[in-house]
Amino acid sequence: MQMSADSLSQTFAALADPTRRAILARLCAGEATVSDLAEPFDMSLPAVSKHLKVLERAGLVSRGREAQWRPCRLDAAPLKDAAGWLERYRQFWEQSLDRLQDYLDELQMKDAKEGDDDGRKS
Amino acid sequence: MAASPDAAPRPDGPSGAKPEDLVLVITRTLAAPRALVFKVWSQPEHLVRWWGPQGFTLPSCTMAFHPGGAFRCLMLSPEGTEHRMHGVYREIVPPEKISFTWTWVDEQGDPGPETLVTVTLEEAGTDGAHTKLTLHHAVFESVTARDAHGVGWSESFDRLAVYVANL
User: Fold this and answer.
1) Under an 8 A CB cutoff, do B51 and A96 touch?
2) A25 touches chain B (CB under 8 A)
3) Rounded-to-integer distance, Cα B22 and Cα A24, Å
4) DSSP label at A40?
5) pLDDT tens, position by position, for chain B (167 residues)?
6) Do B142 and A12 touch (CB under 8 A)?
7) What ipTM was reported for this prediction?
8) In degrees rounded to 5, what are phi and psi of residue A35?
9) Most buried by CB count within 10 Å: which residue of A68, A83, B10, B79?
10) If DSSP codes are grouped into helix, strand and coil, which group holds residue B53?
11) Interhelix angle for A18-28 vs A6-15, to 10°?
């Protein structure tokens, strides 16, 4: 149930920005250079590099070692962890809502019983 | 931003993945009047009776049920593991809407990612005895991020959703 791992925090923080989500979405289609990534955004290369650094730190993007263009590629493992995290929340709520209905039934049965008693009194 | 060259499906488009794939949306029709459902979300003595998965308990729960008010709960797993959760109520509209932030706090007291939960309650049917509950849990979009950008989900998220679904 523990859901507060640091790596997840980093993943979610990295995903909180629309430009970074768009960069990841582009990388789903395959490797790209920094200038490829900058193109659709009307952004400077340094600005894109800054976003890439955040994504790299979160382990979502890795970069090739080839000195000149160092292609960026998606590392999907943290995304998979994030999806698993979401699934645990789903289970948390589904089971809570099952218990909620049971509790509501219990409360209403009690109310109905007290209602009957009141009815007899008046 | 995010003008994808090969147009990804739009979030509200008729086909393709929806942002909901990466945000939790759970809908339930409950057999109880709306005022009662609202009440059991809004008072700690009721909340502790049902909040948490099967077998979990809430030995302590304090809540200041008003916008800006905080809640702090200790949850115990069936094995006795402690889980602490904190949050702040953002919006409360009786008897139809409650929204709050929610964070798990680790043993060192450090908070995890902040998430935003929104619960809406609608009357279901005309007998006054059923309530449609919709729970929206935005995990990726922290409150600060949402406020900073003033936008919801971008279409690029659709493609990520599809990608993650296929992992």
Assistant:
1) yes
2) yes
3) 14
4) G
5) 333 333 333 333 322 333 334 567 889 999 999 999 999 999 999 999 999 999 999 999 999 999 999 999 999 999 998 989 999 999 999 999 999 998 888 888 888 777 889 999 999 999 999 999 999 887 644 444 444 443 334 444 555 556 666 66
6) yes
7) 0.74
8) -70, -35
9) A83
10) coil
11) 90
**What are the DSSP E strand ranges found in chain B?**
24-30, 57-63, 70-76, 82-93, 97-105, 115-123, 131-138
Residue A21 touches chain B, beta carbons under 8 Å? yes
Q: Are A58 and A43 in contact (CB under 8 A)?
A: no
Considering only CA atoms, which of A26, A3, A14 is closest in space to residue A79?
A14
**Non-local CB neighbours of A15 within 8 Å, separated by 6+ positions:** A21, A24, A82, B140
Angle, alpha carbons B91-B94-B95 (nearest 5°)? 125
Please state whether A70 falls in left (phi above 0), alpha (psi between -120 and 50) or beta.
left
Residue A18 at interface with chain B, using a CB cutoff of 8 Å? yes
Phi/psi for B90 (5° steps) reads -100, -45
How many CB atoms within 10 Å of residue B113? 24
Q: Which residues of A touch B75 (CB under 8 A)?
A: 1
B118 and B3 in contact (C-beta within 8 Å)? no
Which residue of A12, A98, A99 is in closest CB contact with B140? A12
